Structures are given as C-alpha cells and as structure tokens.
Amino acid sequence: xxxxxxxxxxxxxxxxxxxxxxxxxxxDTDAVNDAIFLLEDDGDAETVITxxxxxxxxxxxxxxxxPSVVFMSVGSAKIKNMMPVIGFVxxxxxxxTVFMTMARLVQTDSRYIGVLxxxxxxxxxxxxxxxxxxxxxxxxxxVLGIIFGFLFTYGMVGAGIGLYMSISIAxxxxxxxxxxxxxxxxxxxxxxxxxPVVFITRSxxxxxxxxxxxxxxxxxxxxxxxxxxxRMGLRNTTRNPARLAITVxxxxxxxxxxxxxxxxxxxxxxxxxxxIDANTWDLRSAFNAPVEADSVxxxxxNLDPAATSYVIPYTAMSTIVEKGSTQSGAYxxxxxxxxxxxxxxxxxxxxxxxxxxxxxxxxxxxxxxxxDDIDIVVGSTVVTLEVTGVVQxxxxxxxxxxxxxxxxxFTPEDCNGAYIQLVDPAxxxxxxxxxxxxxxxxxxxxxxxxxxxxxxxxELAQGFFLMFFMISAVITLAVAGSAxxxxxxxxxxxxATLDTLGFSKWQVAKVITVEMTILAIxxxxxxxxxxxxxxxxxxxxxxxxxxxxxxxxATGAMITTFFLGVVFVMLSSVMPIRxxxxxxxxxxxxxxxxx
Length: 595
Hints:
Layout lengths: L18 H7 L19 H8 L14 H42 L1 H9 L4 H40 L13 H26 L3 H5 L18 H11 L2 H37 L5 E10 L15 E16 L2 E9 L3 H4 L4 E4 L6 E4 H7 L6 E6 L2 E11 L6 E4 L12 E9 L5 H9 L4 E6 H44 L1 H9 L4 H41 L9 H17 L2 H9 L2 H9 L2
Parallel strand pairs: 3-8, 5-7
Antiparallel strand pairs: 1-9, 1-10, 2-3, 2-6, 2-9, 4-7, 5-8, 6-7
C-alpha cells in the first residue's frame, strides 16, 4: 500500500527470484521493467537519463530519494526530533511535581530551621545541609530513573517497532539521555530546596519559629443545609484560594497530559477510518502494460457487468514533484472521472482535476497552495500544472488530475489500471480472484485489505497510546498525592484538635474525602481542555513523522479523561487519611504549643 502510505506489519513479503522466472510469469522472456545503475561520477546522472529516453522510461529514482534511504535518514531524523517532545512533557510534569513537593517540605521544616538558627548555625551551613538532602534525593531518584528509564525505553521502542516491521533492535550504550535527565532532576531539586531555605533563613529566629504558610485564608458559608462534616470539607477546601488554585492547575495539567493520549488515539482512529472509507472503489487493479482506456470495462476485467457499479480507467506513476527548489517524491493518479472514485475532503481551492489537486501532506511539504505552479518530473520530461485544490489526506503524497493532462508523460488514450466499484462489496475477495486471472493484470488491491491492515496497525498503536496514558495517570496520582500529603503535614494541629473535640477517625476521613472530591472534580474539568491543547501540540510532531490528523475532542475522550482523572486523584486521598489516622495527638499538641 505504498501509495496510500499505510505502514503495515507483516503484510508485505519480498521475494528474490532469478530474472527468467519473473519473466516467465508475464510470458515474456525478454522483458524488463526496472534497471539499477551504478555511476562512476554522480554528475553523469542526467546524461544516463537522456540516453534512456528511447526506452520509454516512466520514472527515475535516485539513491538518496529511494524510500528505504528516505525512511532511514529523514524518517529517523524526524523521530529523533519528535521523541524529545514526549520526553519534555514528562520532564515538565516532573519539574512541577518535584518543585511543589520539595518547596512545601522545606517550608514545613521552617520551625526546625529556626531551631538551627537559634543554636548558632549560620545561613550558609543551613542551606548546605538542605542542599545535601537534595543531593541524596537526587542520587536515589537518578538511580531509580535510570533503571525505570531503560525498561521504559525498551518497552516503548519495542512497541513502536511492532507497528511497522519485524526487525530486531540493539540498544547502544548511550548515557547522554540519562545524564540530561539526571541534571534536569538535580536542578529541579536544588532550586526547590534552595529558594525556600534562603527566604526562611533571611528572617529572624522568632519569625522562622513562628512560620505560618503564606496565603489569604478566607471563611465562607458553603454547604447550606448539608451535614456538618460535608460543610467542613467544603469550607476547608476554599479557605486558601491561592493554594487551591495552584493545586488544581498543577493536577489539572497532569490529568490533561494523561488525557492527551486518549484524545490523540480517538482522533487518529476516527480520522484514519474516515480516510479509508472515503474511497468509493472496492478493487483497484494495476496493469503490467498500457491498455487502451476505452476497452477497459467489466468484461475486459473478467467481471459480470451486473456485479459492478463502475469501472474507471486511470493512469498512475511514481514521479518527482517540484515547486521552485523544493521537491518530493509522489504518486500521480490521472482519471477523467476521478471525482467518482473518492469522497474528497477539500481543504483549499476547488476540485478541478484539469489542474493538480494535491494531498494535504504533499502540499505542506512543497509549500504549495491553489494558484501555484508545480512541475511533475519523469526522467527529463517535465509537465507544469497549476494547483487547483488541496484535499485532506492523512499521509499520502499524491497528485490527482485528469489523464489528458499527463499526455507528455503517458499516452492519454491508454491507462495502466482501473478502479472497480462492486454492487456487493462483500464479494470483493471472489471478484478479485477473477480480475487476477486477466493476463494483463499485474495486481489487485482490495480496499477491505487496506482497512483490515490499518485496523491492525491502530490496534497495536492503541496499546502504545494506552501505555503512555497509564504512565501519565500514575504521575497524576503521584502529583496529587504529593500535593495533599504536604498540605496534610501542615494541618497536623487541625487534625489533633478535631481528635480532642471528639471527632472519630472516620469522621475526619469523610472531611478529607469531601476536600479531595472537590479537588478531583475541578482538576479533571481543567484537565479536559488541557488534554486537547497538549494533543494539538503533540499532533504537530506526529504529522512530521507518522501522519497528520485533526485533533477532535470527542465526547467519549472527555468523559474518560474526566472519570479517570477523578478516580486517580481520589486514590491519592488515601495518603492524608492514613496520615491523620497515625497522628499522635498528644505529641503534636505538645510540640506545637511549646513556648
């Protein structure tokens, strides 16, 4: 399916046979349709092409333009550019998580810093001690990061390779990514530790000992006629608006990062399915020699005329398409009834096949728009066409036009293939067998096969996306957990007071659950638009490497993102609940009220 540009796994077999065996298949012991030339000097290429013109060559492919070379060089380079984007997403979330956790942890230790100051320790010594804490955390985190990073990389690359081809992979011992990750984490930890320590040590001993978290604390009458515990949960949630806003935004971003993969998967699946379904033909036959177009009908293709809705001849060729100094390899399809073969999704211009209608990917690669001129190059023959329209295509590089326009390249009275629409698409396999029996037919493509291979590919890709989703969801759990546990540590006096007032552990747990429910709902609502924004950014990278598709925030993806966001945030409520249950009330009150 090279012209459709659908990468498939295990659906293509390459057989290397003696030349005479292949010639016997087409009943011509003297025929060849391809040749490979090794030039002594690259500058002789144009001379060789000119000398080959009498043989009626249809296309010339230079080594650097061969699909295998392009895939390994350009494709690999683009993948190398895309993967850091994914890595940056996780680094960004990691930085926010580390900063929020470490900064709050140091702020909670303010009283202990005040004690150290009262004992005569200077600011530099205190800062160094906390920086050493940061180094220890960095070292432990780096070791775990390297181990999990290697396992994650191995699984991700294995899943990615599985989408395209069955090849073995060997991981080079490249330590640069791990060094970059370690330095990034070290920087995040050190900054997170140093900033609050510096601010605290700039204050007096008394101010440090009496440190209270900054932020405006408000009271409200939320809850109405709700139960006492529910009202407490509602009012506790909103009593520090600044902290609530920061927390829900940070958690919402992480939920959006997880939901991004669901949005990407849903958008890609739906769009690619629509692209395949847009083709109205059921079979597409290719001929091994030019055939007079007027003679191509159902009878010529060994089909019952009553079983076919249409048979449309076409001319196809692989060419080089140029616009100015920019060029790209592409397929050209010419048919006088092209508009019947597909329900084109017009992006720009109009569907006027007297000129060139470009696929969106090709138009973007060339920088071509309606009204521009492009050159179709086959050997030394050049045909200049005006771009009349651009149609939405996932990845295919195709020029759609009329057969007559290709006259300098191909005899307009002839064709080298035919689109076939069947009355009953379910019989396509049986009808394809009949078409293959025609001597001039080189091959038959069933649209059902294309769709089946595409669905197989997306099923593999679905696992790929879900793996990223689960990783992001776990990060969401960690971010939410770190946010609420630090907050719980600052509220130990509150929990101890509730205990002395006769509130049971289960009642305290209900108050915390109400708070976490509000946090989960608001964060998940923020996560929905964030998932769409992040999916848009990542889709731009995917368009450069795999295929382009419009990102659509479908209802299913929104509901799933919201529901799973709430679930994972609520799971983190276990941490503050366990903390409140294990709190020693007597010790807490004695420490906090000691003069």
